[in-house]
Every structure is written in C-alpha cells, then in structure tokens.
Amino acid sequence: MRKIAFINAKGGVAKTTCCVNIGAGLALGGYRTLLVDLDSQGQVTKSLGVQAGEGLAELLQGDAGLGDVQIEARENLFVISGGGALSGAKRMISRMDMRSELVLSEALENLRGYDFVLLDTAPSWDVLNVNCLFYVDELLIPVSMEALALQGIGDFLGRVDQVQRYREGLRILSIIPTFCDGRVRKSAEILEQLKRYFPDALWPCVRYNSKLSEAPGFGQHIFEYSKRSTGAADYARLAERLAKGT
Ligand SMILES: Nc1ncnc2c1ncn2[C@@H]1O[C@H](COP(=O)(O)OP(=O)(O)OP(=O)(O)O)[C@@H](O)[C@H]1O
Ligand SMILES: [Mg+2]
Prior knowledge:
Blueprint lengths: L1 E5 L8 H14 L4 E5 L5 H5 L8 H5 L5 H4 L1 E4 L2 E4 L5 H10 L7 H5 L8 E5 L6 H9 L2 E7 L8 H14 L4 E8 L6 H13 L12 H5 L7 H4 L4 H15 L2
Parallel strand pairs: 1-5, 1-6, 2-4, 2-5, 6-7
Antiparallel strand pairs: 3-4
The structure holds adenosine-5'-triphosphate (ATP) and magnesium ion.
C-alpha cells in the first residue's frame, strides 16, 4: 500500500486537481485507491460529486471508526472526506502534549486493502500537514508555472527536510509542473529552473486546460467530463507513471 501526499504550502497550485485526477486514473487502471482529504475546504468529495457524511474529522476525534468514513465514490475509488469540521480536530491535536504528530498515523493504522492512499492537503503548514508528513512515505509536489511559483518552495522544502530527520523513509517522489503553457515564456523559464533544482524528480507537465477547471463543478473527474481533453491525457500519463513506481 503506497501512501502519498500532494503537498505544497502554496495555494492554488493544483494539489486537489492532481489528487482527484491521478486517483481517478489509478482507479480506472484497476488499482484500489483511497483519497483522504486533509483540507477544511473539503473539495475532494465535491469534485467527485459525492455526499460527505462522517469523515476525517470524526475519525480523528474518535467519533467514527475507519469502516464508517470510507465512502465509495467510483469503482476502485474511495474517499475519506475533509471539510470544515476539521478545524475542531486540529484544535484537539494542537492541545495534545505528546505524540500530536502521530494522530493521523494512528487513526489510519488499520487501513487495509488499498494499492494507493493519496492525501490532499491544505495550503498551509498546520498540524494536519505535519501529521501527514509522519504518515506518508512519498511526496508529490505540484508547482504551478506562473510568476512567484518558486517563492516559498525553499522554505517549504526546508521544513520537509526537518521532518525527514525523524522519518528516514519520507522522500520526495516528484515535482509536478502544473498550469504549463508552452506559448508563455515565463512557463519555460520556471521549468528550466525546476530542472536545475530537481534533475531526477521532475515529472511531465500538466498543461493549462479549461476542462480541468470545469470538471469539479459537474462533480466529475477529467476522464468522465472530457476524456479526449489534454487534461485527461496529461493525468493519464501521470497516473501511469505513478503506478510504474518511479
Ligand atoms: N491544468 C489546469 N488548467 C486549468 N485550470 C486548472 C488546472 N489545474 C487546476 N485548475 C483549476 O485551478 C484552480 C486551483 O486548483 P486546485 O484547487 O486543484 O489547487 P489547490 O492547490 O488544491 O488549491 P488550494 O491550495 O486552495 O487547496 C481550480 O479551480 C482548478 O479547477
Ligand atoms: Mg486544494
């Protein structure tokens, strides 16, 4: 069972879009996949058009069990929902004296039967994201190819480095360049910079594609909403890449 987070402290870089569509691609490829939403915006369930019942907040606070919170969104694709109730769970974690970074790991300890567990995270450095870094083994970092994209990334990677001292297994699997536009010079320049920083960990781009921004409004992933779009092609490629394990 591979445990992977989509994470970047910067907002709006396509963490949720990557999580939902790579997850959908894996599920369509026959991999049993669970999406866990750590964001109080609760966009994962909304993007897939499923009703969020009891979710991660109730699980973390001991008000619901693992069996209660896994919602089947599609064949092979399950969700543990996030949403506003997570603020209470975060307050609870912040008040703990000990092992506060392991609350998520303990809550998900008995999870079985998935090939992939993908975590969507909030654009912040909060207690849930710290918990996330203590649970997952691999990080996928979406970076948008726009001005200021690299701002804050050094700071973010420094924090990841700090956690890696306690968690040797934690590794950055890849950087996913998002909102790529071949016609825009800025996009190419940022990509060049990223190649210099991460020569071995840069994955293929996700191109700018309006279908990707429309799909969540219809409660559909990109392979349902527009399977011939460039967005579907890009996410199919990324899902395949992830499944291959490199
Ligand atoms: N390749 C793309 N082309 C066009 N629009 C996109 C693309 N990827 C994502 N979007 C849209 O951009 C917006 C931001 O994406 P998304 O919500 O996935 O980012 P995020 O990193 O999860 O944001 P947040 O930090 O708020 O959680 C959304 O409206 C999404 O539909
Ligand atoms: Mg998001």
